[in-house]
Amino acid sequence: MPQIDFLLLHPPSVYDFRQKAIMYGPISDLIPSSPVFEMYPLGFLTMANYLESHGLKVRIVNLALRMMNDVSFDVPKFLAKLKPKAIGIDLHWLPHAHGSIEIAKIAKEIHPEVPVIFGGISATYFHEDLIQYPSVDYVLRGDSIEPPLYSLLTNLSTGAPIKTVPNLTWKSNGSVRVNPRAFVPATADYVDLLPEQIMKIVMRYRDLQSVLPFNGWWQNPITAVFTVKGCAHECTTCGGSNQANELLNGRHSPTFRTPKNLVKNILDISRFSKGPIFLVGDLCQAGEHHALETLKRLKTTKIKNEIVFEVFGMPSAEYLRAIDDAVDNWSLELSPESHDEQVRRLQDKKVFYHNSEMEEVIKEALSLRCHRLDVFFMIGLPKQTKESVMTTIRYCEHLFQNSDTRLSCFISPMGPFVDPGSKCFEDPDRLGYRLFAHTLEEHRQLLVQPSWEQILNYETRWMSREDLVDVTYDAAEVLNTLKLKYARIDTTRGQNIANRISRAKKLKDRLRLSTSNQEEMSLIERKMLLGEIHNFSVSTVCDKRELFWRHHLMSFKWLEILRVAISFYSNSNFKQLSVTKK
Ligand code: B12
Ligand code: SF4
Question: Which of 146, 226, 455, 462 is most buried by its number of CB atoms within 10 A?
């Protein structure tokens, strides 16, 4: 069995979802994951790259996906076979509050001497709560922790003092110690995300299925490239906003990757994959000069992959033309959140644009080679009412009427949680929010409630939890009809979604009755929902496949993959390092 210096585990949202009866709701319809939230953080790859390039051996195991794909996959048995020197578990997204702590418990029972290290945005926010759990030994705080993680692993191995490790929360003789946040990098170039390195990890442990990012990746082999750490915007509901970053990462403005570093990463990926590459973050946040410089460099690469651009403010026509000039295949993502300009203005005080400006951008993009344009709306915003949500759907019709089939619209509820660190979480009264959970433990308890109406950690002055749930299905139903009318989806798909929405609505009503009358779910609903993640919670606001990009028959460059495999097997001697818990 090859050595593992650091075992990175990605937990399911709820452990063990296969034995629970929960109606999770359409909380993940607009992302590649299912309600298990099986996608692991991009940071797993940057951490693995960094540690591997410093001589350590890292294994990534997407436990959530393994559990989904194989009902008999036994987590304790699997972990018992491994001999890691340290274990890392992400609590990046708060919806993993249940699964992450349960996995830590299991790991600790099996390997009591192995240090368990947590990290991620939610672990950072709740570091003092998290460290109190007996199975958690260390929490690394911040969204840029590769060098501190390396120090922690080497100090654990050599016996050097832990108090020198930056950004670390730990415990010593029963008391919690919080080391200063000394590592806040000035540029995001210090790490990379080399696909070649990840392929070597797959080959070393002969385990491809544990490294796959999400269920259905083979059908939608999208890769993501992060362009920035943090964000310049101030969206009130977002835990990755500028003010949340100040709170969590001590960063007053975002940290960007340089155009050179960014384009190198895109090129590295294109050597192995023909699939779409999603650029995470609006390039214009770093200024138009930075964005145009990136595009200039991108043009010289002549890569054929589809590049997906997201914009947070409204870009200039010049920027759109520069994209069109730089890449042959591109698409655009816009997130106005609401059609109502008053709601939009409240959501992001820093940047505001009128609908008319957005419509100009849409017109310009569609006059170019933009082959797909997705417009995203959200439910659960400050000042947003049920009527406002339904008017948003009417606005979608206006957009459909004034565009072609390349444009589509999506709407989803903000869920299951409003992000900790966001303005709405930190200052709920002022923004009209009522929170049902504040601590980590309270969120853990919410996650195992019978239905998403009770799982939501908030309601607003304008919409109760019941309203949020009802209007989600109502809006989804009308939007689905419009997509059929304006040929955004075909009849089979439209009919299928209409049926799914209708079934989900009925179940939601039955659950509402049974849980309020008897305080617990009746046997019939329990039977319907036992181990169920798909039937009532996936594709119940739109068909997940609407978000897939064009598919290539051969999405991977197998010759290049073979080259790496051959070079790996003919040259596999790696430095070893011993890490033990102090
Ligand atoms: C890109 C992105 C996505 C991508 C996913 C990309 C990916 N696989 O990571 C998509 C669009 C799919 C997505 C989905 C979701 N997202 Co998101 N996402 C982001 C975004 C915009 C950037 C994150 C990023 O790329 N960072 C760069 C990478 C390289 O770093 P990283 O992954 O953060 O990893 C570093 C650290 O966090 C830490 N770390 C992470 N894990 C671990 C584990 C250990 C052991 C250690 C030591 C350290 C560590 O170290 C890493 C390296 O330095 C942020 C907002 C922002 N401005 O930051 C939101 C954000 C992280 N997402 C958020 C949310 C809520 C979600 C969803 C739950 C939304 C939903 N209901 O669908 C889902 C969950 C997806 C899932 N697991 O299946 C919230 C999280 C708030 C919270 N506390 O929970 C954020 C902050 C803002 C937001 N609302 O979008 N997201
Ligand atoms: S939701 Fe707003 S604040 Fe959050 S990452 Fe997107 S643009 Fe930035």
Answer: 455
User: What are the φ and ψ backbone dihedral angles of 494, each rounded to 5 degrees?
Assistant: -60, -45
Find the 118 Cα to ligand 1 centroid distance in Å: 14
Chain segment 301-343, per-residue pLDDT in tens: 999 999 999 999 999 999 999 999 999 999 999 999 999 999 9
| Strand-pair partners of 61 | 9
Q: If pLDDT is split at 50, 70 and 90, which confidence band does 256 have? A: very high
Spatial distance between the Cα atoms of 145 and 149, rounded to a whole number of angstroms: 6
For 454, phi and psi rounded to 5 degrees? -90, -15
Query: What does the block give as tokens for 357?
Result: 């400006």
Report the candidate in 39, 228, 32 with the shortest Cα–Cα distance to residue 143.
228
At 165-178, the pLDDT tens digits run 999 999 998 899 99
Q: Please, which pLDDT band fits residue 215 given cuts at 50, 70 and 90? A: confident
Domains recognised in the chain with CATH numbers: 6-194+560-569 (3.40.50.2300), 221-547 (3.80.30.20)
Among 234, 235, 311, which is best to mutate for testing ligand 2, by the most ligand atoms less than 8 A from CB?
Answer: 235
The contacts found for 545-549 with CB under 8 angstroms, 24 or more apart, are 545/220, 545/493, 546/408, 546/410, 546/488, 546/489, 546/493, 547/30, 547/32, 547/220, 547/374, 547/410, 548/219, 548/220, 549/220, 549/222, 549/275, 549/276, 549/306, 549/308, 549/331, 549/372
| Interatomic CA distance for residues 17 and 15, integer angstroms | 5
Instruction: For ligand 1, atom 25, name the residue with the nearest CA.
Output: 226
| Ligand 1 and 25: CB distance under 6 A | no
| 244 CB near ligand 2 (under 6 Å) | no
DSSP per residue, 474-507: HHHHHHHHHHHHTTSS-HHHHHHHHHHHHHHHHH
Nearest Cα to Cα of residue 382 among 337, 420, 436, 416: 337
DSSP state of 462: S
> What pLDDT does residue 332 have?
97
Q: Give the burial string for 250-274 (b: 16+ CB within 10 Å, else e).
A: ebeebbbbbbebbbbbbbbbbebbb
What is the secondary structure of 73-109 as a DSSP string? --HHHHHHH--BS-EEEE--SGGGHHHHHHHHHHHHH
Half-sphere exposure of 327 (CA within 13 A, CB side): 26
H or E element that contains 126: none
Pocket test for ligand 1, best of 37, 58, 92 (most atoms within 8 A of CB): 92
Q: How confident is the model at residue 572 (pLDDT cuts 50, 70, 90)?
A: low
Distance CA 195, CA 564 (A): 10
Beta strand residue intervals within 297-381, DSSP E: 307-311, 330-337, 372-379
188 DSSP 8-state letter = G
CA 398 to centroid of ligand 1, rounded, Å = 33
Distance from C-alpha of 149 to C-alpha of 362, rounded to nearest angstrom? 44
Whole-number Å distance between alpha carbons of 379 and 540: 15
Is the pLDDT at 574 greater than 50, yes or no? no
Helical axes 558-569 vs 195-204, angle rounded to 10°: 60
Beta-sheet pairing, 372-379 with 407-413: parallel
pLDDT, tens digit (0-9, with 9 covering 90-100), for 266-303: 999 998 888 899 999 999 999 989 999 999 999 999 99
